[in-house]
Specification:
The complex is a heterodimer. Chain A has eleven helices and nine strands. By secondary structure, chain A is α/β, with parallel strands linked by helices. Chain A has a domain of 61 residues. Chain A has a six-stranded mixed β-sheet with strand order 5-6-7-3-8-9, sandwiched between helices. A three-stranded antiparallel β-sheet of chain A has the order 2-1-4, covered by helices on one side. In chain A, a hairpin with a 2-residue loop joins strand 8 and strand 9. In chain A, 46% of the residues are buried. Chain B has one domain: Rossmann fold (3-Layer(aba) Sandwich), CATH 3.40.50.300. In chain B, 32% of the residues lie in helices and 28% in strands. In chain B, the strands form two sheets. In chain B, strands 6-7-8-3-9-10 form a six-stranded mixed β-sheet, sandwiched between helices. In chain B, a hairpin with a 4-residue loop joins strand 1 and strand 2. The longest helix of chain B is centred in the last third of the chain and has 16 residues. The chains are: A alpha/beta, B alpha/beta. Bound molecules: adenosine-5'-triphosphate (2 copies), magnesium ion (2 copies) and zinc ion. The site of one adenosine-5'-triphosphate (ATP) has 11 residues of chain B, from strand 2 and helix 1. Chain B: Belongs to the ABC transporter superfamily.
């Protein structure tokens, strides 16, 4: 095992549906993409293994439906993985498969070790709490009790993501999409997590807002040394942010490598198609 | 002691949808000593860029060895090295410069050079100082320091590119036709920059179209056609 990885995923599987006699066995399985036509089971993540190293940004790219969000949700315990291991390099859970911990322990890991920015801000934010209230919620979950202290952390973070402080008492439902994503980032950072998951953070934002969110992410990595998994179907985003990249197709990792190598010398036929269609 | 040694190196590209395999280079052997500057010449398509990009691992090579004497890892085969080690080497030991500037949008020249220093884990005050030093050393006009480089001329982009690489004081610098789009005057400047880098102890491997440019600058010239070093200034 790579004991210097901060997070290791081993053979993670996630299926939606019970499976049937043909698809239970990998060798007799005849899937259409990730779907068993016999019983309708979706194999959203298949045999996923990778390491995340301290301070790195790992990109995950793949077409719609390839399983990127499902993978993030399994890692963040929003979805229960069907099988597999998730190992964190951390004193408390050394060598343990944290996917098998109690829901209380999982909540603890989420609150103290992980931050998540969802593709859909509705999932990550309480739209009718104030921006500050959203951050306070996460801080309280992570053990915060001192109101003045939490407010000061909240202000610092909102400033960091360029939300004007005179708007901190407003509800995110009154914010633009880019502002909502930035509040999500502030919220995700509030517990000082060593690991941050970012799912399509810039999708749907216009180009200049996109640039400022990307810049923010880079700055956070540089200044705080947080390890991140950045999911995007947009290769330009991956090129800008990720040191290494995994390519997913139909629930599987089909290629992994240095980001510039994936873009300039892709090995897998599907990755080649993906890259050349952009040129 | 050899600093970089390319042994039996070869690389093919397979383009699946065209059902085509291109043999880009094969059987390349050469070595570079510490502090040397070697040039690589050969006709278009002979595989010069492929060699440099394989050393930097932007290309995934498939044959041979590229042994590099790393400060951190000792002797390491760049073709086999883990991605994480390559990322470390890119951050601290090996630089790559081409005529293209590939950077985060809306970031000023000064910020870009500072980031090169910051990613090596140095404090902001040091980054500021070293950025200013290198920007003036490599003669980027002071009024361009705090502007975005997307509107820069070819020569200005190149000077910024070299400054971003040089500020790290890399042990090995790969130059892929940095002078391709420059006029004579700018080329003279690049030549001076390269001489400065060399004086600072950087080992260099470069591809240049024009032989005149390399004349007197390179210690050795590797000819792709003959697959060996030629004497300086030889006609190719
Ligand atoms: N709750 C669910 N029940 C059944 N199938 C699901 C469920 N959630 C996701 N899926 C299926 O799992 C597969 C992977 O979906 P996922 O959302 O992870 O894809 P994605 O790579 O994030 O796509 P996108 O780029 O569109 O966001 C899809 O086939 C999807 O239909
Ligand atoms: N990323 C790539 N994908 C597919 N083929 C490539 C790729 N890069 C290079 N090649 C092929 O490999 C061969 C060598 O190309 P390379 O770019 O190394 O040549 P070069 O000597 O640098 O040429 P030039 O002087 O024109 O820059 C060419 O046939 C080229 O088409
Ligand atoms: Mg998704
Ligand atoms: Mg070339
Ligand atoms: Zn089935």
């Amino acid at each position: 095992m790579h004991n210097d990885a901060i997070l290791s995923v081993k053979n993670l599987e996630k299926q939606f549906g019970p499976g049937c006699s043909t698809c239970h066995n990998e060798s007799t399985r005849k899937l259409e993409k990730n779907y068993c036509p016999q019983c309708g089971t979706v194999y959203a993540c298949r045999n996923i293994s990778f390491n995340l190293f301290p301070g790195e940004i790992l990109g995950i790219v793949g077409e719609s439906g390839s399983g990127k969000s499902t993978l993030m949700q399994c890692l963040y315990f929003d979805e229960a993985a069907t099988s597999g291991e998730l190992i964190l390099n951390n004193q408390e859970f050394q060598e343990e498969n944290v996917l098998e911990l109690s829901s209380q322990q999982k909540r603890y890991i989420r609150n103290y070790h992980f931050g998540m920015v969802y593709q859909n801000p509705l999932k990550g934010l309480k739209m009718d709490f104030s921006a500050m209230g959203n951050i306070a919620e996460k801080l309280i979950a992570a053990g915060g009790r001192n109101v003045a202290e939490m407010e000061s952390i909240g202000k610092t973070l909102l400033e960091k993501v360029h939300i004007p402080l005179f708007r901190m008492k407003e509800e995110p439902k009154r914010f633009s999409g880019g502002m909502q994503q930035r509040v999500q980032i502030a919220k995700a950072l509030s517990n000082n997590p060593p690991i941050l998951f970012l799912d399509e953070v810039t999708t749907g934002l216009d180009l200049s807002v996109q640039a400022s969110v990307l810049d923010l992410i880079k700055t956070i990595q540089r200044e705080l040394g947080i390890s991140m998994i950045v999911v995007s179907h947009d290769l330009a985003v991956i090129r800008m942010l990720a040191d290494r990249t995994l390519v997913m197709l139909n629930g599987e990792i089909i290629e992994e490598g240095l980001t510039d190598q994936i873009l300039e010398d892709p090995q897998n036929p599907y990755t080649q198609q993906l890259v050349y269609s952009l040129l | 002691m050899t600093f970089l040694k390319v042994e039996g190196f070869g690389k093919s590209f397979t383009i699946s949808h065209l059902n085509q395999t291109i043999r880009a280079v094969e059987q390349i052997d050469f070595s570079i000593d510490k502090g040397e500057f070697i040039g690589i010449t050969g006709k278009s398509g002979s595989g010069k860029s492929t060699i440099l990009k394989s050393i930097y691992r932007t290309y995934l090579p498939d044959e041979g060895k590229i042994l590099y004497d790393s400060e951190e890892y000792g002797l390491i085969d760049l073709l086999q090295a883990e991605e994480r080690k390559i990322l470390y080497l890119r951050k601290y030991e090996i630089g790559y410069v081409s005529q293209f500037l590939n950077v985060m949008p809306r970031t000023t020249s000064r910020e870009l050079v500072e980031q090169s220093v910051l990613e090596m884990g140095k404090p902001a005050s040091v980054a500021k100082e070293e950025a200013e030093y290198v920007l003036s050393h490599f003669e980027l006009d002071r009024k361009l320091w705090d502007t975005y480089p997307n509107t820069f001329s070819g020569g200005e982009k190149l000077r910024l590119n070299i400054a971003m690489a040089a500020v790290k004081k890399p042990r090995l610098l790969l130059l892929d036709e940095p002078t391709a789009s420059l006029d004579e005057q700018s080329k003279v400047k690049v030549r001076e920059l390269i001489e400065k880098l060399k004086k600072n102890g950087t080992t260099l491997a470069g591809v240049f179209h024009d032989i005149e440019f390399m004349d007197g600058l390179c210690d050795k010239v590797f000819d792709m056609k003959r697959r060996q070093y030629t004497s300086e200034g030889a006609v190719i």
